[in-house]
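Hi R.,

Quick one: here's the Ribonuclease 3 sequence you asked about.
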Amino acid sequence: MQRLQKKLAAEFGIDFSDLALLETAFTHTSYANEHRLLKISHNERLEFLGDAVLQLIISRYLYQKYPQFPEGEMSKMRSTFVREESLAGFTRTCGFEAFLRLGKGEEKSGGRNRDTILGDLFEAFLGALLLDKGVEAVEAFLYQVMIPQLEVGNFERVTDYKTSLQELLQVNGEVMIQYQVVSEIGPAHDKLFEVEVLVNGQAMGRGQGRSKKQAEQAAAKNAVEARG
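And here's the predicted structure, written out as C-alpha cells:
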C-alpha cells in the first residue's frame, strides 16, 4: 500500500487519511475469501457507493455541459461514459490494476485484466475517496482523469456500438439481432473471442476481443461502419 500511497500523492494529489479504507477498495472478494480467517473486508460495498457518486458527478457534468439536451439524450451519454469497459480503461490509465489484491485462483485465471473486476475497482476507489475526503475530492479526481477524455471527444472506447446498431436498424421496424461466438483462441486465462452479429439471420459484421462483450462491441462497430 505504500507504493500506492506514493502514486496517489504524486500523480493525483490525494493523501488518504484512512489507509484501511484504501486497502479495502483494492481488495477483491476472491482475496478476502482465501483469507477468511483474517476477516479481511472486500470492496463490493465501496463499489456500490462509488457507482452512486460517479453517476451523480457525470450527471451534473452533462447537465451543465449540454443545456440543450433532453433527459433521454443525457441518460444515453451517461450510460456510455460509465460502462464497464470504460471504467476498466480508466483503471488501466491510472495504473491501479497493479495494486489490486486478488485470490490466487482469480489471479491465475486472468482476473487482473478482466474488465468487470477493473471497472468495479475504479468504482470502489471512488467510494473510498468519497468517505475519506468527500464528494469534492471525487469530483476533482474525475475532472483530472475522466472528464478531459470526454471534453476532447475521445468517446471511441466508451461508445456502445450494440445500442447504436440496434437504433440504426430498428428505424423501420423491429429486427432480430443476434451475437454468436465464431471462435475462441488461446488458454482460458488469455482467450481471444471472435463474434459475428446476425440481423434477421444474415451476417452483418465480425469482431474480436478479450471478452465476449468486447468482441460483441467490435462486431457491432463493424456492422455500423459497414452501413455508414
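Residues 161-227 form a domain with the Double Stranded RNA Binding Domain fold (CATH 3.30.160.20).

Cheers,
M.
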